[in-house]
Amino acid sequence: MKLFPSLCCALVLTATVNTVHAVPFYLDLGGTNTAKADFFTTNIHATSALHNGNCTGGLCSPDENSSFTESGNGSATGLYRNPNTPLYNAGLNSSWAMTFDYSDLSGGFTNTGGVSFDQGGNIDINFATVLGYDQDSGEIIYGDSIKVAQLVVNSGSAVMGDVSLSGSLDYSWYDAAVDDALTEGFFTTDYGSLFELWENGDNLVWQLNFNITNNMNTPYIGDENEAIRDTILNGQLAIVSVSEPGTLALFGIGLIALGLRRQHKKL
């Protein structure tokens, strides 16, 4: 296990406390690596269930008394460097794929038409080989799937159709005796893999942004108890790090002060 990532992150984050930073990463596919990226694009099929909506003739819309639950699945479609430069992806969706699935997101609505997500709910990220394509539907045929990360939803909101979800990375489910070792190095940064950073207690989080403007006027179909709407979400998912407001900054400043003191002694 590498022991240096916490130190590196502390030094980087001291100057910008409470600021979100993109963490460039590459994907280690088990012998082949992608280019280093700032984010990857996603295509997700989401199914939302509306509860306590306003319904007329089987068509429903939400108000501030409504709630929703959501499940979905999808895949990564590309790797990019900011602002929008496509990168080498080592055969994404031709020889391998990165897929997503979730089933336990929930939230509510505001009286101004906004959306808020509850804390909790997980999004699983999986690696799979591509076996081919279905000749009738054109859909990808995947081989066995390997879970490589779990994203825990901590917060989320939607304003004017722009949705932002964020949360933490969790590897507590991983068992080296059972799960594939590909997980330990799949997401790798300059400071080590995300798995290593998680083991060392670094405060790394993810952020998923997408727009639902084209779907906002699509009604839910059903009744007041439950109405369903299917949507396709195209978004961007990035790994970000957020510094702790107190201790991390003090720790980093202490390290800098120690270095200056040693330098002064040499003089």
Automatic annotation (TrEMBL):
Alphabetically list the UniProt keywords. Membrane, Signal, Transmembrane, Transmembrane helix
What residue intervals traverse the membrane? 237-260
Q: Which residues form the Ice-binding protein C-terminal domain?
A: 241-262
This protein's record includes keyword Zinc: no
Q: Do the record's keywords include Zinc? A: no
How far does the signal peptide extend, from start to end residue? Answer: 1-22
Q: What is this protein called?
A: PEP-CTERM sorting domain-containing protein
- Which organism does this sequence originate in? Agarivorans aestuarii
